[in-house]
Amino acid sequence: MTLRKLEIQENLQIVNSRIGLAAKTCGRDPSEITLIVVTKTFPTSDIEALYQLGIRNFGENRDQEGSVKAPELPDDCIWHFQGQIQSNKLKSIANWADVVHSIDDLSHASKLSSLVDQKDIFIQVSLDDQPNRGGVDPENLEEFVSGILAFKNLNLRGAMAVAPLGQEPGTAFARLKELSNQLQKFHPKADEISAGMSNDFESAIAHGATHIRIGSQILGVR
């Protein structure tokens, strides 16, 4: 085993232990939580090492990277796109991403729907007042969900959010949990929550996250 693979393995074991402890602390089954390893800026060799260590869920923020890496890995990998969407990249994203976490524009949903037979999506909701970070205004959530449900080939799985900078993560994730409950009133099957990154995933788990997106705690800082 190479030194790099050993480093990744050790980091992964630590993160999995923390996920298990966080889940048990709030009375949840760790198996309910999907770990997405965010591989942006890291080489395919690191992803191959993760694959050999049992990871199958990988996250990318940029089409330029995901479109190159995804075809190089086995077909049983599940690729998650979680970055801000550019309309001119949607055709490419649709080709390689199995799950799109950052739908916050009905025009993007419409275009994605026209490109695919079926696609899993999350609605990104905004938890702060920084529009450049993306997300649907919570006040518009009901109207937005209604628009999304018109696209029958988009499988709405739940809500996604990024905790605001400088705010206590628990406060943000409690709000996201409320919005998730609101979303389920409109679409009961959309009961998943994509939230939590390297610095706040335990708090996200405590507030119901089903998908956590971790990069630096496993792969290091680039």
Which features characterize this protein?
41% helix, 9 helices, 222 residues, globular, TIM Barrel
Main sheet summary: 8 strands, parallel
Would you list the SSEs in sequence order as H and E?
HEHEHEHEHEHEHEHEH
Structural class: alpha/beta
Please tell me what the overall shape is: globular
Helix content: 40-55%
Task: State Rg.
Answer: 17 Å
Beginning-to-end CA distance, first to last residue: 22 Å
* CATH architecture call: Alpha-Beta Barrel
**Text of the CATH class:** Alpha Beta
Q: How many domains in all? A: 1
Estimated share of beta-strand residues: 15-25%
Output the strand order for the largest sheet.
7-6-5-4-3-2-1-8
CATH fold field value: TIM Barrel
Summarize the structure.
This protein has 222 residues and is α/β, with parallel strands linked by helices.
Explain what this protein looks like in three dimensions:
The chain is of the alpha/beta class and 222 residues long. It has a single domain (3-219), classed as Alanine racemase (TIM Barrel, Alpha-Beta Barrel). It is built from 9 helices and 8 strands. Strand 3 (78-81), helix 4 (90-96) and strand 4 form a beta-alpha-beta unit. The mean pLDDT is 96.
Any chance you could write out the topology, listing elements then pairs?
Layout: H1 3-25, E1 34-38, H2 44-52, E2 57-60, H3 63-69, E3 78-81, H4 90-96, E4 99-103, H5 106-115, E5 119-124, H6 141-148, E6 154-160, H7 169-186, E7 192-194, H8 201-206, E8 211-214, H9 216-219
Helix pairs in contact: 6-7
